[in-house]
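User: Structure please.
Assistant: Input sequence and predicted structure:
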Amino acid sequence: MSLPAAPQTWSAAELAKLAKVDRAVAAGEPAIPQLVAMLTEPSWVVRRGVVRGLAAMGDVAVSALLDVLRMRRDDETRIAATVDALAASTGYVEAKVVALVNDPDPAVVCDAVQVLGRRRVLSAVPLLRTLVDATDENVAVSAIEALGRIGGSAAVETLIAAATSNDFFRVFPAIDVLGRTGDPRAVAPLASLLSTPLYGLEAARSLARTGESSAVAPLVRFLSGRGDANMRTAAVALAELHDRAEERHGSPAAIVRALQALPDAAVVSRRLSHGFRDASPVEKVAMSVVLGSLGSQESVAILTELVDEPAPVGGAASRALARLSLDAQAELGRVLRDGSSAQRLAVLPLVTRAVDPALVDACLTDEDAEVRKAACDAVGRLAEPARVGVLFDRLDDPSATVVQAAISAIQSLGGVETEKRALALSASSAPSLRRSGVRILSYFGYPSSFEPLLAATLDPDARVREAALGGIALIDGEAATRVLLDAAGASSERTRRVAFKALGHRNAAPDVVEALVAGLDDVDAWSRYYAAQSLGRLAVHDAEATLERLLADPAGQVRVAAVEALSLLGGDRARTALLAASGSEDEDIRRAALVGLGMSRDPAALAALSSAAVAADAMTRLIAVSAIAAFDAPVVLDALVAATADIDDSVRTAALGCLAIRPGPLATAALVRILGTNEAPDRVVVALSSPAKGRVAGIVDALSTDSEELARQLVSALGRMGTDESTQALIGAMTNTSAAVRKAAAATLGALGSEASLETLRLAAAHDPDPEIRRVASLLSQS
């Protein structure tokens, strides 16, 4: 068993303060002053715990928090934390926060407006629209930002008006916010500002944030205009547009289609190539993304030159090449023949049968070992067994990684020639070549390989002997078993280890079991380790008592192996031992036992796993959460949902991953609930987009919402899923009674760009009862 790397843990002082916060929240209203005093805690994790606690207390904490905004403005940390708590509060704070808008202090008004925006208070839109014209510019900017968060027709119309008002102090924040609304109507006004020197660069950046394919054409025009600064800004914007579309809809296909549909793609490629000289690394990475999307012959030529650039540019160019359609195989062949090592390394993973195999063979002798390794991989991928000879020629390569790649490629090709050459190689006078020959024979287990492998068990090179034993383990018959049993009694510790491990792949014959049980008393700890593992793998229940004794072995890995073996055995005795081990003070033993209990799926293990899911140690919680996910009891869903709010990121990630693959409507409903409270909703959307059984139906059930934000998130999950079922659900969403859902579905259908999607949008443009959606659908169906 291999355990994941230990996640970050908090200090003892932080954990103590978090416990103090929990006690204060449990005490209720009398403890509110104590919690408010902790809003200035220097530790971010403690401060976050305080904010969560005050938010969870709801209405009883609201007045104290509002008092902080009005009267305790001497500390920015306190103010920021107070705004966070009000924004997340479970209480009915809207009316009280709206009242703060009349406060004489503009700073208080700004904070109140921010809370309204973060809570997406739709009823506050009329008030916020009036504040866009407020005398105090900070208040106006706050209102613009709040409207951007809330969205909706009225909000977007106000933002468009502000962006085109020519009022400097309103245009800039409105430009920034418009791009974040995700509303297709933002594209046209932002595009109109590209030609304005004062606002052009900022408008380009904002267009990038829309994720809309209709933004491609104006950005390309901006890129093709005068000045390298415009070109580089537009390239960065197009690259971000690509990434935003992928993030929002699960695929950048609509952006790529729009770029490839340009009538002058080659001109754009040349324009980008001329701007590389003075570009920064970030700009070069963006240009690589755009060139990879364009997919022209000119793009391939430029990108293959760029792979020589230092990181991160070379890596970005390599990734862009990997995304290219392989219509450019001729250009790739030229690089294989004439390119530098770095260029060859970038294009070898892209090679298909359209490339002359001789050009790949030439890379097998490149001076760079990484290139030779990639060339071996390419030969194996071409799947032509007749060419296995060029790989055998690389088995004397000075680089061990190249030899390993050659062996892996040979194993993927197989064939009569492979058997013949491997048999000859196993008798080579060179130990490294004998070892390679034995490894290949061991992998295939040819009947003809038994005698050569048997001879190799007596080889003077220990690594050859070990490889031979591993191969004999795959050969059926009593003779092969006898060789392994003899090796289990060898004087070499390394030989015994290999033998005990290999015996776990035989059947549980009495002599095999006897040898493995004897191995539990071997003086070598790793021999005991492999013997224990093999007894578990062979399900030797008679060894339970001896395995239990190993729970006190002085070697930690042996104790863990004993727990693993007991996990595989099952039964009452093994379960009792695992339950006892799950409470061990040795964290390695405890974690191994938790894994075993998870494998058992025994309802009696749920209590131990639930307890471990809230243990003080983050790694233990991580293991417990992953183990408990194998059960179907109602308590499991509660534990996974609770773990999505764990203080440790790796535990939160594991819990979301478990919910992502969990079938049924309850898991989907839980993920939808988490969306509104999770600090990283995009990660929850990714979890929702996993096509677990019943996931699409669960999302469709949740689409009865008037929240534009929730509708966008749920529709994004359907778009990212990319299945026929999810696509049909998106098309069906265009008949949803909620305008927010139809609007969100329209944006994703536009990104998909299929004929069925576009036809659905054309119907909506003509017949949707909401004029705003008709306008949006009309825009998207034409892009």
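The first helix runs from residue 12 to 27.
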